Amino acid sequence: MNTNLRRILTLTLAAPIAMLAACGDPEAEAEDDHGDEQEVITTLTLTLTPQGGGDAVTATFKDADGDGGEAPTITNPTLAANTTYDVTVTLLNETVDEDDEEYNIGNEIKEEAEEHQVFYTGAGIDDGLFTWTTTDVESDYADNTGDDLPVGLAGTLATADAGSGVLTVTLMHQPPVNDVAVKTATSGLGDGEVDVAVDFDITVE
Amino acid sequence: MSRPTHHLLVSSTVTCCLCCTPAVVHAQETTCTCAEPVRGRVVERFDGVDDAFGLFEASVTLRDGAGKTFEAQTDLEGRFAFEEVCANDAEVTVALERYARTTASVSCGEPLELVMPLAVVEAPEPSQTVTTRTFEEIRDSRTRVTLDEKELDEERGVPLAKMLEKLPGVRALETGTVSKPMVQGMHSNRVVIMIDGLRHESLSWGLDHAPEIDPFTAAQVSVVKGAAGVRYGPDAIGGVVLVSPRPLTYDDATLHGDAHLVGLSNGRQGVAAASLYGGVPGVAGLAWRVQGSGKIAGALESPTYVLDNTSVRELNGSAAVGIEREAWGLEVSGSRVDARNGVFTGVYSGNLTQFQDALTRDTPRGVENYRFDYDLERPRHEVVHSIAMAKGHLDLGEAHRLEATAAYQLNERKEFDITRGYITGPQLDFTLSTGSLELAWIGTFGDAWSASAGAVGMLQTNIYRGRRFIPNYGASGAGAFAWVKREGERVDLELGARVDAEEMTTYQREAIGGPTAPIESFELSYVTPSLVAGARWRVTEEVDASLNLSSASRAPTIDELFVDGVSQGVASFLEGDHTLDPEQTWAATGNLEIATGWFDLRVSPYVQYIDGYIYAAPELDDNGEARAKLTINGSFPSFVYQQVDALFAGVDADLRTRPYRWLELATTASMVRAQDLTRDAFLVFIPPDFIAQDVTFKAATLGPFDGASIGARVAYTARQTRVDLKSDFAEPPPGFLLVHAHAGADLPLGEQSLRASLEVKNLTNQRYRAYLSRLRYFADEPGRSINLRLKYSF
After folding, report:
1. Contact flag B433-A23 (C-beta cutoff 8 Å)
2. Which end of chain A is more exposed for a tag (fewer CB within 10 A), N or C?
3. A114 vs A35, A111, A121, A140, CA distance in Å?
4. Which chain A residues are within 8 Å of B308, Cβ to Cβ?
5. How far A136 CA lies from chain B's nearest CA (Å)?
6. ipTM for the complex shown
């Protein structure tokens, strides 16, 4: 084998190995924050404050590590019978620090209120154990163009007599398709994508 | 030392014309003016051996009586065919590296056998006739089906896996615009894809991850069916797809090239490609090739609505340069594929309730807002695949050859989901880099024996950004193989073995604990052995039979080991198992080929037992009910990767007949049966039975055109009845019949040529859903498409 050939072969064989060395360290990269251009909603909290005064009750769904890993924890609320509660909804990403701008996903949703709606359904409502009324509208949170539609991050829950039933809270993300609005006065569950779908067992005493 | 004498043999069978004087058949007609196929074989002969060995990739030029030239290349058997040429006073010239250019006359009416001596290659040293053959030139006992350049040209502009559907036993697993090849019921990590001799390394485990290959780089695509681990390494369980570019033209320094222009009406797609290749005038043994292609496609349309956001953008390029000297050669090449595919808007992205709602609907929800445009919006995938490769070979004496291949591949895949407006980047982002090195020796001993041995090494890293789905890892692998082959007068025998070992270390923060959780690391290692014993028997000149017994192995893939989360596109929660062992398959594949003058039949039955077959099965509780996993989006049925014993069996067949000079009929059929023996259940995504019939009328000349043809093809896909609804979610769609039509002609322009073809796919605009398409839960498949293809070559 002449020296030129040897040189050529050495270079071509060494080059890929060298390139490989420059391509990243999987161990070091695992410590990185992985770029975070993804959103995780880990926590949904309903804060129910009785209208006549009294302590607020919270209902929480929390999946601290996102999908997979540990199972989520649900704190189901116990409410007083024949009482109306003012309810506010909080959505958090607890995989980041509290002062991170992504911590309160609810803020992002409010900014895009025209593309989101929270729906309240479930056997508890069908059976008349409690009723829900959404009280907020899009313009409460951001500039509104077009119809000022409800959002569902605030509302009232009125309980009837004692009993227990399921309340399903569903956050639908309804971005426009081909510049045509998906969220309209008549859109509902099933239009758009499900971001959150949580069942709470509500006990009314 | 005595050397076997080699004779270059061109045997051609020319059947006499039927057209010039109808109803008269002459045995020795010397003034026929019709078009007759000229078929022949370029072979190598050894003294004292009756049979001849076909030579692959010889360039054959036919000059007919009128001075027109036609080009062809011999296939793996050394065969070539010129359709619709005038055999009168025709002359055939054959050129092949290391053999002397040889010319023979062809005349109508006589079966002609020519024996021509091999000229010795001039060399400064005392003459040595190099007789070494490459891997691919040595025939093997495996079942191999091939699409040559002409057949590929008829399908240009569509993804690779769709082009391969013309081959028996090959189907495409589709998700809208992306498709991946399925060979005999197996896909993804059970099918190895080789590009120009290099193993394609990408995230092939994803059902919607198409192989990142530009089909325009291929001058030939072969599919080897069945377990082929010894030659192609681990994972070659279902088969191997071999994409071969045009070889560098060392013996022809003139500039050549071709340009393709394709328009597809469904999706209003425009595809363009061009290639240039040649040598350097005055410099012997230097050759080069550059090539590029691009595609712009808008949303596809089903017969009744638009498949919103199924747009595509692609921009690809490749280049190669090589030196070929008498005893050695070196080729350096590079390529880049940049593809962006939109994901159909109607693919569910929510939870089980929403998915079940989609299953009950006849049209996708929100279909009234679907619109045709070229926009590529979220959700979409963007992939860039880059390859840099160097291949060299060294001939040691007359009978031995050393080959080395070193390559680096970088696969960058980004997946963009629908998110809130403030997010601009991808949600899944993987960077897979692989460096590989392969060294092989191939030797021939005497007339009949050949052997090869070699070693491979691989280093790979995967780094993810964005959503947690599979961990980072670093892996290294090494393998060694050896095989020996005896090519006899009638029977070829082959025996081989290979072992590969892989070590992988994964790094990922523990699931619980957020961004400060400790990093969990696993060290995994796998040993994947392969064996092959094969025999091929030339029963008669026309009948060829082969039997291949092989064992191959596949290590579990990173997603089977570590996935932990919701699977996009189907409402399921997937969980991996990092204690999985490799799969080991034991396969018997047979092949029977009967090739007579007017028909070609090939039947390939196979059976494969897979020990430790890995797949995601529904997780069942003690009562046999499917378990569910709860997430903030709702609950999803839980699927866990498990190992079972599986059995695959089936048969592929194709038959081509040419009852008249102007009529060609082709039938293709395939059938697969696959069973999970452990759980006594059917496996998912197994292709339903399929049969297709093509009828083509051909004319030698039609005015200024040559090789004109017009025909139709009818393809029936049966309903898949062997399903497990717990894994499949919905009833499989009914069987469907599609009708296609095609027509084409060549326009010779002296040294150049122009080929135009028009095709109508799904002529009747049939509405249908296909079991192998993941779109079937949400929407119909695309409807009619009128495709126009132009190819200019010089």
Report:
1. yes
2. N
3. 28, 8, 21, 11
4. 177-178
5. 20
6. 0.86
